């Protein structure tokens, strides 16, 4: 395993982060393909054996049962100080706004609830899951800084935001002496490269760690288009992100398969090896032990400049999808 400092922090993380969205009670959330604890624990155990120390979950994953599974597995398998735990909070929705939670009260409640589900005293990296348009950014930063002073969180990150939002927040934090966002978890892979317009350069300039999710495009970059899996069949959210551009994307996927065959490696290794040339630690999901092995092997695959250019050549501009491609936040404001 290879390790790296997470942005401008002292957190030393494995260059593969295990994404834990696939762990949780299948009947407890939006995803029906997730693994119950008995199946999730061996995957977490194997990740630890391979040197992975960075685990990412969220309060939103299967109604918090992902956090419960991760916390329980860590307690049963290793010492808390051996791992870096990241989890995410969701900004207030309409119901919570009507309940008159202030922005600060909501963040404090979310932290305490996540700590309880994880069975931990501290969260190493606490992430705003998407931009909070209902809470002034100064209030958010002051609340997170207070939680840091109380020892409940060590560092903060953000997910699903624009480069200007991250830059504005960190400039304000510097001016006011508050905690800065040290990482960004965005949607970035060979099929989704819109971050290269602004975000990548900004993060490189200010040493903000990029830990992108959907590193394998929900499995599309790990197998040929003719192959399928349970997740591919059931993950409606992923379909909403990738089905509209499947014709253009298949040409890139074919090139991943071509290089994998030429180099006698898997498509997973090629796709992640490309991403590892761009970011600190991609968030890689796993629903089988073998998925861990493929991700770890990618660390030792050196793509040539010609390989990288060949993989990138056919990309065309894509519309923003997922959180940034919806008007969900606008609906919340009404």
Describe what this molecule looks like in 3D:
The protein is α/β, with parallel strands linked by helices. It is built from 14 helices and ten strands. Helix content is 43%, strand content 12%. Strands 9-8-7-6-5-4-3-10 form an eight-stranded parallel sheet, covered by helices on one side. The protein has a two-stranded antiparallel sheet with strand order 1-2.
- The amount of beta strand, in percent, is 5-15%
Straight-line N-to-C gap? 48 Å
Q: What sequence of helices (H) and strands (E) makes up the elements?
A: EEEHEHEHHEHEHEHEHHHHEHHH
Based on secondary structure, the structural category is alpha/beta
Helix count, per DSSP? 14
Query: How does the overall form come out from the CA principal axes?
Result: globular
Can you give the helix content as a percent range? 40-55%
Largest sheet: 8 strands, parallel
Write out the strand line-up for the largest beta sheet, numbering strands in chain order.
Answer: 9-8-7-6-5-4-3-10
Count of distinct strands: 10
Q: What is the mean pLDDT?
A: 92
